[in-house]
Amino acid sequence: MKSEVIRLFQTLPHACGYYAERTAQNLVIDPASPHLPQIYDVALDKGYRRAGSHVYRPHCNACRACIAARVPVMQFRADRSQRRCLQRNRDIETRLEPAQFREEYFALYRRYLGARHAGGGMDDPDSEDFSRFLYTTWSPTRFLELRLRERLLGVAVTDITTSGLSAVYTFFDPDEAARGLGTYAILRQIELARERGLPYVYLGFWIESHPKMDYKARFRPLELLTPDGWRAH
Predict the structure, then answer these.
(1) Other C-beta atoms within 10 Å of 4: how many?
(2) Does residue 104 surpass a pLDDT of 90?
(3) Residue 1 domain-assigned?
(4) Alpha-carbon gap, residue 154 to 104, rounded angstroms
(5) Does residue 92 share a domain with residue 168?
(6) Which residues contact 53 (CB under 8 A, 6 or more apart)?
(7) Are residues 34 and 61 in the same domain?
(8) Distance CA 66, CA 68 (A)
(9) Residues 170-199: what's their mean pLDDT?
(10) Which residues span the domain enclosing 31?
(11) How far is residue 224's CA from residue 3's CA, in Å, rounded to a whole number?
């Protein structure tokens, strides 16, 4: 790819998804850039994340709470709780499938959002919302299915790049919460990266002491992106 300027856009302030009293802003790589497929893995290394066709990172005026996080695959060792999670889900079969709309996926997605995000604006999606949020034409996305005797229990939306896997989003059967399917999905993504010789699994953003983010800190070692580069947490 020839050296060209990649434009960045800053969004207008909008409600923060983690702190009700704060507003947030993002930096977004030009979604019309034809070079997004080539620069996406570099963007992950710089702390960006994909949602639909947008590759972004938080850039808030008075807050730097969101920190990009990743797991170095070869150094990772499951702790006791994670080993129990693997044992608890030993009856699950995983399959890596193309990212696409299926009624089976969509029904599970709607159930998950209705149970986990009721009243939050995401809990009544249509089919276009599903496709627009989870994948796009250029993204290297696969759906990691979690199945129990053919019954779909969960889907881990996974981008596979040359620098690692990005755990984009996971949705699962809300009636199976006791299984810890969110944790299980990340453990399987780490295994998948290891099998493919990929160095990292990117977990998106971590916020210290935030209850929605505590689970990410349990994947050790965890690396955080600081002004001086990636550092072990």
Answers:
(1) 9
(2) yes
(3) no
(4) 11
(5) yes
(6) 31, 36, 132, 136, 137, 138, 139
(7) yes
(8) 7
(9) 97
(10) 8-67
(11) 29
For 175, the token pair is: 């009636």
* CA dist 131 → 31, 103, 135, 139 (Å): 16, 12, 6, 12
Helical ranges in the chain per DSSP H:
36-45, 80-88, 103-116, 127-134, 181-195
Alpha helix (H) residue ranges in 122-180? 127-134
Q: What confidence tens digit (pLDDT) does each residue in 110-138 have?
A: 999 999 866 555 657 899 999 999 999 99
User: 152 in a domain, yes or no?
Assistant: yes
**Domain containing residue 107: CATH number:** 3.40.630.30
Instruction: Tell me: do 17 and 121 sit in the same domain.
Output: no
State the pairing for strand pair 223-226/200-206: unpaired
**Could you tell me where the beta strands, DSSP code E, fall in 8-163?**
8-10, 14-15, 23-24, 26-29, 49-51, 54-58, 67-72, 93-98, 141-148, 151-161
If we measure between CA atoms, which residue out of 76, 156, 70 comes closest to residue 108?
156
The average confidence (pLDDT) of the chain is 94
Token readout for 224 is 């955080």
Q: Are 206 and 217 in contact (CB under 8 A)?
A: yes
| Phi, psi angle pair for 97, to nearest 5° | -125, 160
